[in-house]
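Consider the following assembly input.
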Amino acid sequence: MESLPKNLARDLKDIVGSNWVLSDRDRLLAYESDGLTAYRSKPLAVVLPETTDQVSRVFKLLSRNNIKVVPRGAGTGLSGGALADPTAVIIGTSKMNTIIKLDPDNRRAVVQPGVINAHLSEAAAPLGLYYAPDPASQSACTIGGNVAENSGGPHCLKYGVTSRYVTGLTIVTYEGEILRLGGLGRERGSYDLVGVFVGSEGCFGMATEVEVKLLPKPESVRTLLAIFDRIEDAGKAVTSIMARGLLPAALEIIDGATIRAVEASVFAGGYPVDANAALVVEFDGIEKGLGADVQKAISDCKKAGATEVRSAATSEERQKLWQGRKKAFGAMGRIATDLLVQDATVPRSRLPEVLMKISEIGERYDLNIANVFHAGDGNLHPNILFDRSDSEELQKVELASTEIMKVCVAAGGTITGEHGVGHDKKSYMPLVCGVDEMKTMKKVKTVFDPYHGMNPGKVLPTDI
Amino acid sequence: MDTNLLKQILPVEGQVLENFGETDWSLFGRQAHAVVFPHSEEEVTSILSVANENNWNCMPAGNGTWLEGCLNTDRDVNLVLSISKMNNILVHEPDNLFVELEAGVTLEQLQATLRSSKQWLPLDPPGANSSTMGAIVATSSCGALQTGFGKPRDHVLGATLITGDGKTLELGGKTVKNVAGFDLLKLLSGSWGRFGVITKLVMRLHPLPEADRTLLFSSNQQHPGPRLAHDIMHTPAMLQSISILSPGLGEEPESKDTRVAVRILESEAAVDQVEALILEQVKISPLKKMNGLESKKFFERLHNVDENSDVVIRVTSLPSEVGILIDQLENLQHLVAEKDGFGIKFLAHSESGVLIVLIDNLKRDENWLIQSTKALLKLRTSVENYGGSLTLLHAPEDLIRAVKPWGSLSEVETLFSGLEKVFDPTGILSQRELPKRKTEGRQCL
Ligand SMILES: Cc1cc2nc3c(=O)[nH]c(=O)nc-3n(C[C@H](O)[C@H](O)[C@H](O)COP(=O)(O)OP(=O)(O)OC[C@H]3O[C@@H](n4cnc5c(N)ncnc54)[C@H](O)[C@@H]3O)c2cc1C
Ligand SMILES: Cc1cc2nc3c(=O)[nH]c(=O)nc-3n(C[C@H](O)[C@H](O)[C@H](O)COP(=O)(O)OP(=O)(O)OC[C@H]3O[C@@H](n4cnc5c(N)ncnc54)[C@H](O)[C@@H]3O)c2cc1C
């Protein structure tokens, strides 16, 4: 394994402090993978700066030494985006976790990238405000990671994904240049630099300050849980609810395998274990409008074949109805050593047919696939359960995973709805992107990162 | 310019226009040699290829109603490439809330089609009836609804772009969530035709709200417009638009007061409750309440108020600064010839921090240019000091040249010029200049 040259280590420590340059093997262990544990690699070192200025100085030093950098937030990513090879240095944001400004007058916040998503909403709550994008990992993932992945979440069905909420950025380029992009009410020139940076997966530069819009907390929330014998019926209920013009805040499906995993765990929420699907439907907004919407949704679920529809009256009951959705990943961790989460997306009316095909793929490869997903957005999350040490099984996982993506693309969808391409899906990019499109993406990256020092080897296939 | 080359590509009568009325397709009185109307993407590609071979400057267009917008150039445009004949709605999947269309479809045409499925595209740009969807996206034009629903960028799911060098790029897809690769789609909104011709769009749709209600409030000493708008913004509900209207704007007879219009788009069951919450918040009664079509028409009229304006400016700032900026408009009053009572008019979408300023009757004495330039640059400096910006959308050519459409780009100049080179390497679309470029700072690999 390569090691960090002594003089470079010293210079880096001069910038960030001696405790915040990690290079011994044991401490690097925590950085060898993100949430996708199938890929592992230890970086050359990890540097933990605290300010934009420190990031800029660190980048200047590393780029002068031709050492590539990989930004990293909480490492909850599910596409191997924060994976660094042994010649690259990870720049972690765990010390950049200050909420710089909460500005209720303008309903915005300015934060450092290491702020945990849920912490921002907690801090804004006393002002009656919250940050809308809510990845299921929100208690751990960072705003910087969300920006890089353009993350979604259960409530993005109604409120939209991260890019809708990021109004301004301070970024540091590989060469250490500090650039301010956008800003609420700041329209210099007309090209949407913030828009193109969001979702750039750490390949354009590092976000060191993020300005986001906050929303007023909705007056009321109503949550339903509908139980089905067949997952296709849950999919049909989703289509009917949306087609009649309702706009729920969230529409999430949990399949039978997931229900049983959750119910067998400490997170049990009281779902019937013989059910084959559960659908969480949530409405929020003005109290008066909600009752009618809830009744319509109940009727749609029943028409689609729901055997039971539960409704939450209190906040505790609401939490319980969400339990199967929110704790699904944790519960699955108990029944399999490894988990590969796909997040292909299809137009929602194609859900029933695509779900059937996924289950058929699972059977054919003799793999356990559990589905728990953002149904309203057509954003699937087939979780393939496997054991990494079984090389034959690992190969089957890859084949099944490729087939699932192909099925979704053929149904008019895409290979990833929110987890990003990262390292994991770059070889699948040609399924959805032509060569000219990928070459143009590379050229746009080059505009931001002419020396290709940012997060190398991610997103685009190597031969582009 | 040998237009026969174009006629070989575009064989149908009327596809190549050489003689047209003086004001049609004109750019500050100068006309292009020809306007072409391709019917297909293949034709667009062929035209760009001939244009590249012959070094013709091209300008993409829709219906050509706003070609002078933000224009600042010394270069003559040889060819206007209008995709207004590419105007078919290709696929509408109501269940999946998206529509795929050719970019020459007008917003009005689109809304009419969607209405039967009780859906709509919640965008209300100025000049909406005649605006093509390609142009709305290219200019990122939007009105009051941007507060609740966002800008064109937030509605585009996919697009086909034919770049300056004739490459066809299929960007995005048909789903709301899509993070496969870098988000080049975002670059189309606000590209003003500089990155290529948008030929197709996939737009995200919304259910048509059951109730459409506008409350119009009159401001007074205790409740000046910006204060009132600010109070309304803090109503504990999602409001789709809050606009401040200067005297003389909107209605007949023209009002002498500043007013605030709030639009509520909700279910029948919720609309009264939202209204009650607003009234509880501001503790004054509305001057007028409009429902349904009346509410819709009120905003349509409002968005066309600049039809006869000599100068149209967009000032952006933090929502909390809108009031201060409105006060500063006083410094532009001396630019108006014979005040017909109102002088400078404005329309502010306050929660979005957007202020549209209109000068209908610009003074044209011997000092007009110096005075107007001085006043606008001074206002730009002041707005920028507040962290905002001033964009000169429309003005007489001399004034646009002196003030420039956009302010300084400062540190992002190289990114802008780098992006232009990616999409238009030969520079045939570059007559619409953004702020002056520095020489290239960075070397690409
Ligand atoms: C249980 C679980 C549930 C999940 N649910 C969802 C969900 O509902 N929706 C969803 O979208 N995702 C979900 N995810 C995926 C993941 O949480 C998101 O992608 C998240 O945004 C990653 O944030 P992070 O801080 O962990 O970033 P990391 O994993 O550390 O990094 C992710 C990427 O961002 C880059 N990056 C990080 N910080 C910066 C920065 N400051 N500047 C530039 N680049 C940066 C990295 O280089 C990397 O490419 C889930 C993950 C788990 C484990
Ligand atoms: C009365 C009126 C008032 C207006 N006021 C404003 C205002 O205050 N603020 C504002 O922003 N806009 C304003 N506009 C412009 C308007 O909102 C739209 O931008 C406009 O209507 C464009 O429609 P069009 O099809 O005529 O576009 P055109 O005039 O043909 O084109 C407008 C611009 O978009 C580019 N473009 C057009 N089509 C394409 C395409 N397919 N691909 C790439 N580029 C393309 C052109 O190069 C040009 O730069 C106004 C329009 C009218 C009619």
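Chain B touches chain A through 84 residues (CB under 8 Å). Ask yourself how this observation constrains the way the partners meet.
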